[in-house]
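Researcher: Structure prediction, please.
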Amino acid sequence: MSHSSSHSSSLPSSQSAPVALTVQQQGQGYPILCLHGHPGSADCMRVFTEPLSKKFWTIAPDLRGYGRSKTRSPFTMGDHLSDLEALLDRLQIDRCFILGWSLGGILALELALRQPERIAGLILVATSARPVSDLPQPSLAELGLTLLAGSLNWINPGWPWNIETFGKRSLLKYLISQHTAEAYRFLAEAGSAAVLQTSSHAHQALNAALSQRYDRRASLATLTQPCLILSGANDRHILSQSSQETAQTLPNSNYICYPGVAHLFPWEIPTAVNRDIQEWLQTISGYPNFSQG
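Model: Predicted structure follows.
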């Protein structure tokens, strides 16, 4: 999700009934709700949930219109919040952390603004309260190379020849800076399927939100929970400067910007990212109402 604007706006909402989301749960202990981006799915969040579930209870839903959470009706971005509140109610979770990647981070902020007493803290990955992008318009050649690189990577994940010949020249160059076999394996295991499973309604809901020029900076002062904000220095989908702006506006935040990585940096440098998340969680283990269980 990306847009540049000085206009203030929250997510558009409708009155549709909550959808029972498909959810992947792992581990036990203090709950961490893990929210994927666009296009995405719970599978994309395994880079976080597999290490976190050794100490925590991770809950990773497919958002409405993504992955296995199918819908035949149009919806708005605000409807995701109703779905997530219903999910927490269903799981009888009174208070939790949220880890959100890209669009998932925006939903994390919105949920914290909507129910601050329910959110113990936030881990915001490649996201912003005022997302700004500088992506160029893709060329037909780049679109074709992306289809080719993705198809070959699906067949043979992490194949060096494909990465060098097609991957680095495709639109993946705006998502990944370090074109490692590991990053391409993550793409094959979760990314490609997530793109195919993302519904037209999900695309429409996101485009409608972008047209509203999303900007929640003015509301961030009310969020006093501890927050960890992570960004990639080469991110062109949501610029690291806009992530840093969010970190500077939140009253109780820590900010890390990783050099030489882009929007999918958790798949580029998973060990470093998960180490920093675990270390941050350790530092706030004495935070009220938070225990590692």
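Model: DSSP finds ten helices and seven strands in the chain.
Researcher: Thanks, that helps.
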